Amino acid sequence: MREHLPALQVVLPLFGALIAALVRGPVAAWLVTAIVSVASLVISVVLLRQVIGGEVISYHLGGWDPSIGIEYRVDIVSALILVLVSAVAAVVAPFARLSVAAEIPEDKVAWFYTMYLISLAGLLGIAITGDAFNAFVFLEVSSLSSYALIAMGTNRRALVAAYQYLIVGTIGAGFYVIGVGLIYMMTGTLNLTLMAERIADIELSRPILAALAFIVVGISLKLALFPLHVWLPNAYAYAPSVATVFLAATATKVAIYLFARYVFSVFGRSFVFADLPLTETLLTFSIAAIFGAGTVAVFQSNLKRMFAYSSVAQVGYITLGISLATLSGVTGALVHVLNHALIKGAIFMALGSAVFRIGKCSFEDIAGIGRKMPLTSAALVLAGLSLIGLPGTAGFISKWYLVVASLELGWWWLAALIVMSTLITLAYVARVVEAAYFREPSKALADVTEAPAEMLIPTWILAGATVYFGIDTQLTAGLAERAALVLMGGIQ
Predict the structure, then answer these.
(1) Separation CA 7–CA 82 (nearest Å)
(2) Does residue 45 sit within a domain?
(3) How many domains are contained in the chain?
């Protein structure tokens, strides 16, 4: 059984989705989802332990050689993403029961969990596959189920948000598969490892340059790189709370992983960043995301929409680290992939708890909520402080690595911009604190009580993790540095 864990990592949530669809009952479907999520986490942790010493697991589906078949390939980079996705799913599962029951009609609850597990399977598949076309299949599996999750939101605008995401996602997938087709035409393989070996000899040919352009743009649409982010704010704002939590913490992170895997492992760092102007281009868009999307977030009236724009800005920090193409920069990017998943997971869970009690989450609706829901509000503020990058929180570690990477290159101006950008984050987090603690509770909050323990405990697990990993960085920063070394081919 142990040798088949890579296949089980994907098959298990797919099989769970089938069972959830067949049982139909809301509680039974939730129970299946919870069991599958925890089992997926166990499998991913076992896989991480196997590769943490530098080993690579190569699993050949059907026993076919990777040159003609599909390979599942697990190294420390992919294992880290597998643990992230499955850990978020495992924490979201207990939170989901009450939240989904409150926001989704009873006859659609089982279908919600079905789509949720299919999305989980797709995201895990992207992280574990070593085949370019198989990555496209899993990309579409996760995207199509995500469209359905978003469309189940109570607000009618959820349908529009899902449709916008579908259009943009389809364009992104189209660009990606065109790029893969061009590479296949030149290399004769879809296996990522073999692609990397063969591209090294023909990297300056026009089809390979075109393939790089198509793949970079296609995946950038999926990871919501500014200005290709138009689908994300509405998708997060109008999706059911559980869908927002899960997608915000995992979907863009997996797309970032795929982006990094291509530019570093397949095309190669020296080709992409030394011979082509990707550093300048990606750095420009990253800075625009940090300041542009962050500024837009300040002026939002809906908290979910505000933190959705914040996610666009935070993706900018991650792509900024990738654009530097140094060990410290890529380590900072990977650390922020992990830390931002924890931070946004905690924030959207806290907002989901507010929606569970109040029904809405605009600034007017949460006025004075700090007195009525003190534990929920405290978790929201704590995660917000980590988002700012307060010392002692996980967010500080991410920005520290990015500042160090900038100074190593002698780009003091970039380090100054990173530090200055925290003022924008401070501005919109301060709005939340002011509304929650310094305004009188509205009449609508008269009968509001604290969120149930079933929702509070998962929220505080993630909120507490943003502090723990800001103090003890051996696990997150240590693994991220090892992953960065592997991703970049062992450079020092």
Answers:
(1) 13
(2) no
(3) 1
